[in-house]
Amino acid sequence: MKHTVKTATNLSLSALLVLNSSLPGIAQLPAVRNPAPSANPNQRRVPPPPPPGSSLPLGNSGGLTQEAAYTLGSGDRIALDIFGVPEFSKEYQVLVDGTLNLPIIGSVSIQGLTLQQAANVITKRYEPFINVPVVTVTLMLARPLNIGIAGEVTRPGSYKINPAREGSGGGVKFPTLMEMLQLAKGVTSAGDMRNVQIRRSRRGGAEQVTTVVNLQDFLDTGNLSQDVTIRDGDTIFVPTASALNTQEVRQRASANFSADITKPIGVVIVGEVNRPGPYTVFASDVRSTNQQTELSFVSIDQQQGAVVGLPTITRALKIAGGITTEADIRRVQIRRQVKGGNEQTIMVNLWDLLQKGDSTQDILLQEGDSVIIPTASTVDLTEVSQIGSTSFSPNAISINVVGEVIRPGALLVKPSTSLHQALLTAGSFNQLRAKKDKVELLRLNSNGTVTRRTIDVDFAQGLNPDNNPVLRNNDVILVARSGYTRVGDNINSFLQPVIGVATGINAVSGVFTGFQTTINAFQNLFLGGDFERRNQLRQIREQRQDRQEQREDRQLERQIQREDRQQQAEDRQQQAEDRRLQLEDRQRQINVENQQLQLQQQQLQLQQMQPQQIQPMNP
Predict the structure, then answer these.
(1) Can you tell me the distance from the alpha carbon of 95 to that of 89, in angstroms, rounded to the nearest whole number?
(2) What distance, in Å, lies between the first and last C-alpha atoms of the chain?
(3) Mean pLDDT, residues 37-50
(4) Which of 367, 373, 523, 540 could staple 265 via S-S, CB 3.0–4.6 A?
C-alpha cells in the first residue's frame, strides 16, 4: 500500500460548483505568466484546510513515543500528483542536493521535509500559476539508509541498509533497533541495556538524542514498543554500564541482539592459581590442564535456544589449573577495558557463591579481561576442605612421598589432602624400616626457594598447620629410616663383599654355609627381605607411569591441534559467507539502479512523444 499525504481544500457547495465548472481552465496554463492576483480581487479566496496527519511509510511502528514522520532526502523517489494537471503529475527523483526539478517553478528544496511538508511547499510554489492547486506527494521508493552503530557492540561502524517493501505494492519497511544490533553482532556484556541512545539529526540543526530505549524492559516484560524504528542518518549508541548487574547479563546472554557467547575469548589469569598466564576460554568445552583431566560440556544449541557452558570466571579458573590453598576467593578482581580506554574493576566474592548460592558472583567474562586471585592474609583451615571440593579447584595435585613407605613415589591426591592422608595413600610406614615419629616436608616456594620442615607425626591430630598441614602441589614428604635400619644397612654394606667370596667357594667347602644362613636371616629380620628386588620393581612401576603420562601428553597435544584446525576452518567458512552476502547486496543495489535508469529513459521518451500544449487561462 502506497503512503500518501494530500493537501485538500475546504470548499462549500457553491464553491465546488464554481471549481467544477472551471477545472478545464485550470489545467490550461499560459506559457509564461507573471504572478497576478485573482481576476476578482473582492472575491474571497478559499484557503486550504489544515494538513491532515501524515501516515508513516513504515512496516512496523511503535516506540516510547509516537514515531516521527518520514523525512525526505537525496535518493528518494516520489510520485507528485496535481489534481487536474496531469502534465505535471509524474514520478520524480530527489536530487543529490535534496531538491526536485519541477515544471514551471523549477528547483524546490524538500531535504529533511515530511511528505506533508513537501506537499505544502510545492502547493505554495504553484499557487501563482494554478488556481487552488491540490497536491499529493507519495513515497514510491525510499533511499538507502546510512546508520551508525557505536559503543558496547561487537562490530561498531557505519551500515548501509536498503529498506524492504512489504509485498506487492506494500509499504516500506524500515529496520528496527534490535535488527540493527543483530547486524552489529550484538551488545557486549558491559553494555547498558537500559539507556540505549538513538541520535538523530534535525533539519538545519545538530545531532540530538531523540530516544532513550530500555531494552531490559523488553526482556523483562516483552514490551515491543522498545523496538523503535531506525531512520536514515540515525546513530545508535550503547553506553557502558556504570555498574555490572550480573543477573541481567545472564538473562540477556541468550537474546538474539546480544554478543555471541559461543565465540572463544582471550583472558589473562594471574595470582593464586596453579598455572597462571593467558588462556582462551571456549563456551562449549573446558579442560583442567593441571592434570590432563578433560571435562566435557554440552555445546550451545542455538536452534533450540539452549545456553550451556557460559564462559564464566569459575570455568576460567578451572582452565588455569584451579586455585591454590592460599587463594583469597573473597576478593577476586576482574579488570576490564571498556569503550573509551577506561578500565573497570569488578569485585567478585566466590565465597558467597559457595555459602549462599549467589550465582551472580560467577560473572561472565569477555574478551581481554584480566582475572586476579589475591593471596589470603590468613588461611582458615576449616574452609580449605570445602574450597578444595569446588569446581574451580584443581581436580588433583601432585605430591611425592619418598623413603620408607609401602608405595613410595608420585601421587595424585585431592587439593585439600593433609599430610596424614598422603601418608596413608602411600600405604603408610614400612613397619620394619621407617622412622614413624617424624617426617620431613619439602615445599617449593614461588620465589624459587625450598622450605624444609620436620613434623611430628601423630595420627590422632586433626587438620592443623603444625602436625597435620594441608599439602600443596609439588610438595615432597620424606620418610627417614629408623636407627635399627641404618645400622642394619651399614652392616649389610660391610658384609656384602664377604658374601660374594663365600658364594664363590661354597662348592669347595661348606664352611660358610652356616654364615650365609645367618646373613639371610639378618636381612629378613632387619631389612624386610630382598630389598634390591623391590627397588627394581618400584623403578619398573615408575617407568611405566612415566610412559603412560607421556602418551597422555601426546594425545592431548593431538586433540588440541585438531580443535585448532577445526576452528580455523570455521573461521574461513564464516569469512566466505560474509563475502557472499556482500556480493548479493551489491548485486541488488545494481539492479535497483538499473531499474531507476530504465524508468528515467521511459519518462524522457514519453515527454518527447507527448507535446506540451499550453494555452492562455480563461479569465
Answers:
(1) 18
(2) 40
(3) 39
(4) 367
All three cell numbers of 117, joined, read: 511538508
Planar angle of CA 492, 493, 497, nearest 5 degrees? 100
Tell me how many degrees the CA angle 569-571-572 measures, rounded to the nearest 5: 65
Cα(273)–Cα(319) distance, integer angstroms = 10
Kindly provide the b/e burial profile for residues 154-184, where b requires at least 16 CB atoms within 10 angstroms of the residue's own CB. Answer: bebeebebebebeeeeebbbbbbbbebbbbb
Contact between 196 and 177 under an 8 Å Cβ cutoff? The reply is yes
CA dihedral 381, 387, 389, 391 (to 10 degrees): -170
Q: How far apart are CA 462 and CA 460, in angstroms?
A: 7
Nearest to 135 by CA among 1, 5, 3: 5
Whether 483 contacts 407, CB under 8 Å? no
CA 147 – CA 158 distance, rounded (Å) = 6
Task: Work out the number of other CB atoms within 10 angstroms of the CB of residue 191.
Answer: 25
Mean pLDDT of 279-284: 73
Q: Are 193 and 214 in contact (CB under 8 A)?
A: yes
pLDDT higher than 70, residue 15: no
Given a contact cutoff of 8 angstroms between Cβ atoms, the answer to whether 323 and 329 are in contact is yes
The values of phi and psi at residue 379, to 5°, are: -105, 120
22 DSSP assignment: H
Helix axes 483-504, 513-526, angle to 10 degrees: 150
> Please, which residues have CB within 8 angstroms of residue 558's CB and are 6 or more apart in sequence?
none
At 450 the pLDDT is 84
Phi and psi at residue 79, to the nearest 5°: -110, 125
Total length of the chain: 619
- In the structure, what pLDDT confidence band is assigned to residue 519 with cuts at 50, 70 and 90? low
- 593 alpha-carbon distance from chain centroid: 38
Q: Which of 51-55, 89-93, 268-272, 541-545 has the lowest mean pLDDT?
A: 51-55
How many Å apart are CA 328 and CA 587, to the nearest integer?
59
Q: Locate cell 660391610: which residue?
A: 494
What average pLDDT does range 217-227 have in this prediction?
84
Q: What is the pLDDT of residue 289?
A: 39
Amino acid at residue number 256: N
Q: Which residues contact 509 (CB under 8 A, 6 or more apart)?
A: none
DSSP secondary structure, 65-83, as one string: SPPPPPB--TT-EEEEEET
Phi and psi angles of residue 574, each rounded to the nearest 5 degrees, phi first = -65, -40
Q: What is the pLDDT of residues 302-355, one digit of tens each?
A: 333 333 467 888 888 888 888 888 889 899 999 988 776 778 888 999 888 888
Q: What are the angstrom distances between the C-alpha of 359 and each of 320, 324, 331, 364? A: 21, 22, 16, 11
Nearest of 319, 323, 265 to residue 292 by alpha carbon: 319
The whole-angstrom separation of Cα 267 and Cα 281 is 7
Angstrom distance (rounded) from CA 491 to CA 519:
10
Q: Which three cell numbers stand for residue 364?
A: 561472565
479 in Cβ contact with 401 (< 8 Å):
yes
pLDDT (tens digit per residue) in 555-582? 998 999 999 899 999 999 999 999 999 9
Task: Name the pairing type of β-strands 135-141 and 145-151.
Answer: unpaired
Contact by Cβ (8 Å): 433, 527: yes
Contact yes or no for 262/103 (Cβ under 8 A): no
Q: Would residue 297 be called left, alpha or beta, if left means φ above 0 and alpha means ψ between -120 and 50 degrees? A: beta
Backbone angles phi, psi at 135, to 5 degrees: -110, 135
